[in-house]
């Protein structure tokens, strides 16, 4: 989920905490819990420091990794609660720990529900876990919380308001989960195809994207109601292509491939040599695949520049590649 959703859920949990009379009757404890749930709801994403220290490539590989693992659930809970408690808050540490823990667990839980997934099973397994039934940003989750905040501000008991709000969201999420299973079965039964099928949620309940991979190709499309729409067909790249093989030596490509799925490589000539793009076909916006790794090579297939991450505009990509390309040309 995106940061705004995690913050919103953190505030909502603080409202739900008022269902406990100990918290609702103690303003100082309620404020401490509010801090704990907001920070705890975002703590697993503090791995953003990797991007600041090691760059976008390293962050792409390790984001939602160790910071979302089983031990991290407890580490973040004790760290966040401990910092709040040590700042002099005269509150019940057990209540603070409980609600901060719930916030951390929900962060990881919601991340598992979308297509990107997490390594939440570490250290037992490093497999990426993704259930693929809610989008990276879900407006229903935001709307339910905004209604809750409005009712809270009008004076209604926040504990009761968010208790019913979260019951509604639980029903909504369960419904989405079973819809994803139904659409998967519908696709496989109707097409009778054999291959690797991945369903990707959109913000609409009746519209789901998908990627279907065979030994020789990728097919991308949408399921809308009871209709399957085939949108793009990609023949798999030749693994022996010298240009593509050269791009594999780039660290950013290696970081990207570490946690991507249904990855297709394509290349085209440029004035300086060639450009290779590795795109993750799960993330499609109209006719564009914004999650990628890009490598610029010279005529001798030496790497001039590279970048990995989300690219929504070519101009932005050129801005990210140009500085490193200039440095490479000067060497």
Automatic annotation (TrEMBL):
The record, for InterPro entries, names: Transcription_regulator, YdjM-like
Q: Where are the transmembrane segments?
A: 70-90, 96-116, 128-153, 159-179
Q: What is the lineage of its organism?
A: Bacteria, Bacillati, Bacillota, Bacilli, Bacillales
One Pfam family linked to the record = YdjM
Q: Is Disulfide bond there in the keyword field?
A: no
What is the protein name for this chain?
Answer: Metal-dependent hydrolase
The organism encoding this protein is: Metabacillus litoralis
Q: Which keywords does this Swiss-Prot/TrEMBL entry list? A: Membrane, Transmembrane, Transmembrane helix
């Amino acid at each position: 989920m995106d940061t705004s959703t995690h913050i919103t859920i953190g505030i909502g949990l603080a409202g739900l905490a008022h269902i406990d009379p100990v918290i609702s009757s103690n303003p100082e404890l309620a404020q401490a819990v509010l801090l704990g749930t907001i920070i705890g709801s975002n703590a697993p994403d503090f791995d953003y420091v990797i991007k600041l220290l090691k760059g976008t490539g390293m962050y792409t590989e390790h984001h939602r990794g160790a910071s979302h693992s089983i031990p991290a659930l407890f580490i973040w809970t004790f760290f966040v609660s401990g910092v709040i408690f040590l700042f002099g808050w005269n509150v019940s540490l057990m209540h603070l720990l409980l609600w901060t823990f719930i916030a951390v667990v929900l962060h990881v839980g919601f991340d598992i529900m979308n297509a990107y997934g997490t390594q939440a099973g570490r250290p037992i397994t490093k497999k990426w876990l993704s259930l693929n039934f809610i989008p990276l940003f879900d407006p229903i989750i935001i709307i339910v919380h905004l209604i809750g905040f409005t009712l809270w501000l009008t004076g209604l008991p926040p504990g009761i308001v968010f208790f019913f709000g979260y019951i509604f969201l639980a029903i909504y999420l369960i419904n989405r989960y079973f819809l994803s299973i139904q659409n998967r079965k519908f696709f496989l039964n109707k097409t009778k195809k054999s291959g690797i099928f991945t369903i990707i949620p959109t913000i609409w309940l009746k519209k789901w994207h998908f990627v279907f991979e065979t030994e020789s190709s990728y097919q991308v499309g949408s399921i809308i109601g009871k209709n399957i729409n085939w949108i793009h067909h990609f023949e798999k790249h030749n693994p022996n292509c010298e240009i593509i093989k050269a791009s594999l030596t780039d660290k950013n490509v290696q970081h990207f491939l570490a946690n991507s799925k249904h990855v297709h490589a394509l290349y085209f000539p440029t004035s300086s040599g060639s450009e290779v793009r590795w795109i993750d076909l799960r993330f499609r916006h109209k006719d564009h695949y914004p999650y990628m790794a890009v490598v610029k090579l010279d005529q001798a297939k030496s790497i001039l520049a590279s970048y990995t991450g989300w690219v929504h505009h070519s101009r932005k990509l050129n801005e990210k590649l140009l500085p490193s390309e200039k440095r490479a040309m000067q060497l």
